[in-house]
Amino acid sequence: MRGKLPLGPIWLCILVTSWALCEDGKAAGLPSDEAVPSFPTPLAQYHDTAIPNVIDRLIHRVEVDPFNLVATIIFFCAITHTFLTSVFTKAARRYEDQFAALEPQELDAALGKAVARTRDRLQFRAQVFGFLGEVEAVFGIWLVPLFLVIVMMKGWPALVDYSVKINAAEPIFVVAIMAMASSRPILRIAERGLASVAGLGGYGPAAWWITILSLGPLLGSFITEPGAMTICAVLLRDRIYNLNPSKELRYATLGLLFVGVSVGGTLSQFAAPPVVMVASVWQWSFSHMLINFGWKAAFGIFLANTIYFLRYRKELFSLSPERIRRGAETRPIPKRIMLMHVLFMVWVVATAHYPVLVIVGFLFYLAFVQATGRHQENSSVRGPLLVGFFLLSLVFHGTCQQWWLEPVLGRLGEWPLMITATILTGFNDNAAITYLASLVPDFSATLKYSVMAGAVTGGGLTVIANAPNPVGQAILRDEFGDGGVSPLGLFLAAIIPTLVVGSCFMLLR
């Protein structure tokens, strides 16, 4: 009968799961005399400090633990998948169109049953391919083979122990801060601040463009990068993308935004994930960040924006003959509601490293939003949850890549290290790059500078290069057509800003 679940596969899954738990369930709370082996293998257990060649060291580590190679293959399969999401999205749209086209035939008594079964299949395929086309879901999808391999090669206790060790603080924080920063009251506050600067240019599209891209990313040093990304992306969507700019300008703007936000969080030591990962270990203070990174990042952002502004100035001035003014919304927001939203964000930022406190604050925030619904809009948490899922999955994958990242980073000189960190950031979250660098012993001050500069410089090259990038993509994806943001298009658009900012870090020593 339609609507009932197939019990055979369900019971098979239950039996297999039960068998696995019975065999290895001692790690799930049952008494055990055997300690769960460390996983992933700690770097010290490879005993390969005497092997000078990086390639030989990597081969040795694969021989010691073959799981390393398998996990890295899965990781790069996931990266390849991110470049193919547009293909799955187009397939999902095709199945959706076929599903809709068959609706009239389902009402026909003679064809109803057969057409209904066909529509069920089409709907299921559309949902599956749509899920495969979600960039934020890609690394989560590839957790399935990763977990299976861990269970097969290491056992169920290793997977349980590994999942317990995973630090979910950053994904939880991003979910909360993204939801709050995208709320109507916070956007109104940020818009008013940026509007005061855009007013110097008459509130036109060109003035909004240069203001958002120049000042918006620097907010990441104070309201965190995910918050700055959310505010900038929403304002760009409403002030620039809604005016139907050319495809070339759309990607150029996105490239500037991603690179700007990646380096814009370096004015402080508490807001950008790649900085937070090492600030306490390397004892970097606010003044250290501002003097060594912050002003260079701000100069690089301004210089890159100027280059692109000169390139697209004619189109920017021709987007709309009418000025975009403040106060377009007729319904005002009470100041007390704005204040409460600010206080909720302050709480989340202050407790960012304590997930339980973040969750408690976020639950109270959701209750407040519900109680003041007349002044709220776009309060869906679907986007933030997808981004959080993306980041949590990336942490699961990234931690298994220590075996090759550590020797690659540890053997490089100053400039080769910065260039390598920039390139690796395109294939791994920059917070993971800096964190792994903090594990390398005897890192000099120069090398610390190089790896940080390289990690933040490369944070705009791909969606996975910087934690807030999926936030921006989730907000602006519909502005790039059915296929969403093209990874190649983003990469090409971000090259020039990346080179400009990287040159500032390299030359302004």
Q: What characteristics describe this protein?
A:
509 residues
Question: Could you tell me how far the N terminus lies from the C terminus, measured between alpha carbons in angstroms?
Answer: 72 Å
**Oligomeric form of this entry?**
single chain
Number of separate strands:
0
- Which regions are unreliable across 5 or more consecutive residues at pLDDT < 50? 1-34
Number of helices: 25
Which structural class should the secondary elements be placed in?
A: mainly alpha
Secondary structure: helix percent: 55-70%
Mean pLDDT: 84
- Series of H and E elements: HHHHHHHHHHHHHHHHHHHHHHHHH
The overall number of domains is 2
What would you report as the Rg, rounded to the nearest angstrom? 25 Å
Strand percent estimate: under 5%
Biggest β-sheet description: none
Shape designation: globular
